[in-house]
Amino acid sequence: MPLLTVAVIAFVALIAIFSAVWAWQVKSKNAGMIDPIWAMSLGLLAVFIAVFARGDPDTRVIVGIGGLVWGMRLGVHLWKRNAGHDEDPRYHKFRVQWGADANKKMFWFFQLQVVISMLLSIAFFVPAYRLTPPSGIWVALAVLIWVVSIAGEALADHQLRIFKADPSNHGEVCRAGLWRYSRHPNYFFECVHWVAYIPLAAGSGPWIFAMLLPPVLMAWLLMKVSGVPMVEAESAKKRAGYADYMRTTSALIPWPPRQP
């Protein structure tokens, strides 16, 4: 299918999905379930693009598998974390601030995720519509970056989950494994994931520059909007020693901690 047709279908489908999730949260009062649905829907979008794009078949397979595995792994992790639990403090704070207008404003907040998803999907569209395959070196680099990103994010999530599962760590700061070198190693590897598709677009002309948008957008969202600022505001209130952790540990890129 032509790119515009695939993009329009994807856009409409995402509107329907996030509208359904919004209706769900109206009843459940748990807007945090948008997180796993966002990851899973974007992973499925990668498959949809790979199937119906007109580009090199092998590149499309890589895009589809890469996006699907990323989306399902992250989505399942977030589902286990959010389902059956209290609403994520970030969304609960919005609900309290918005008061009587909470459901209406939450609807448009959910629709904003459609726009974000479409912008991130540029990482799938550009390589999936290139007519000639990238060289083997570029493919190998893309796969290497993708493997590192998925393995790194999964490891960071696992280390934090194990830390929180120990009752003796309640209220403490996680400095286990990757969390010793970054306050948000999971966010770091999430940003790296969106870099992985750039090599697949090498040699595709000026569209290669559009591939910079997904990782930059993700880094901006995590560092300035819905990630680090909100998470750290809550952690500083609830976890003893978090202020010291912030002074000594890199916010995003893993790096040896500074001396206190």
UniProtKB/TrEMBL annotation:
Keywords: Membrane, Transmembrane, Transmembrane helix
Superkingdom per UniProt: Bacteria
Stored InterPro entries: UstE-like (IPR010721)
PROSITE patterns with a match to the protein in the record: S5A_REDUCTASE
Keyword presence, Cell cycle: no
Cellular compartments per GO CC: membrane
Short name of any one Pfam family annotated for the protein: DUF1295
Bilayer-crossing regions: 33-53, 108-129, 136-156, 194-222
Protein's recorded name: 3-oxo-5-alpha-steroid 4-dehydrogenase
Organism: Caballeronia sordidicola (Burkholderia sordidicola)
